[in-house]
Write a structure and sequence with these properties.
Elements (H helix, E strand, L loop, with lengths): L1 H6 L3 H26 L5 H7 L2 E4 L8 E6 L2 E7 L2 H9 L17 E2 L2 E2 L3 E5 L10 E2 L5 E5 L4 E4 L4 E3 L11 E5 L2 E4 L1
Antiparallel strand pairs: 1-12, 2-3, 3-6, 4-5, 7-8, 8-9, 9-10, 11-12
């Protein structure tokens, strides 16, 4: 008879199993918040993640503004006339001289002159300039009067530098990745 009572489950066995399971759940519940707080949240991941931009919908002579890492990015599709004008005026840039050709990227060895991608923050005090405005048809910062040309180069006003160019690359002739 002693053998039968040892092999049959009894109340004590059930209580031991239930207590062990409850302890495991409690331990997991205590440890999980500690582990999850070490992982970055979704907004942090999204803020620094690269973003792909389809350029096809942006017609010639048009521009879009998007946000990346909490800052505005201007993507502009320049016309041939804008490109020629900007190239002719390379020697007239005096505040922060930079050739138009240095402000564009290439795809498969061919310069993508028609596309200008710049941070949309004035280099004077960080205001957001207005597109297609100012004396040079690029961007104009109404806060303090900085005028940028269509390549984002400072032409007049208190801004000390050209609009900065974010890290970006062409994935195809009509798609870029910023970041």
């Amino acid at each position: 008879m002693a053998d039968q009572s040892m092999s049959e489950p009894n109340r004590r066995d059930f209580l031991l199993l239930a207590t062990g399971a409850a302890g495991a759940v409690a331990a997991g519940g205590a440890v999980w918040p500690l582990i999850s707080q070490m992982m970055p949240d979704a907004s942090t991941i999204a803020a620094g993640a690269p973003v792909e931009v389809d350029l096809a919908p942006i017609g010639e002579g048009k521009a879009i503004t998007l946000k990346w890492r909490g800052k505005p990015i201007f993507v502009r599709h320049r016309t041939k006339a804008e490109i020629e004008s900007s190239r002719k005026e390379d020697s007239l840039i005096t505040i922060d001289p930079e050739a138009d050709s240095k402000r564009v990227k290439s795809f498969e060895g061919k310069a993508q002159d028609q596309w200008i991608v710049v941070y949309g923050s004035c280099t004077h005090l960080g205001c957001v300039p207005t597109s297609f405005a100012g004396d040079f048809g690029g961007w104009y910062c109404p806060c303090h009067g900085s005028h940028y040309d269509n390549a984002g180069r400072i032409r007049r006003g208190p801004a000390p530098k050209n609009l900065f160019i974010p890290d970006y690359a062409f994935l195809s002739g009509s798609k870029i990745r910023i970041g």
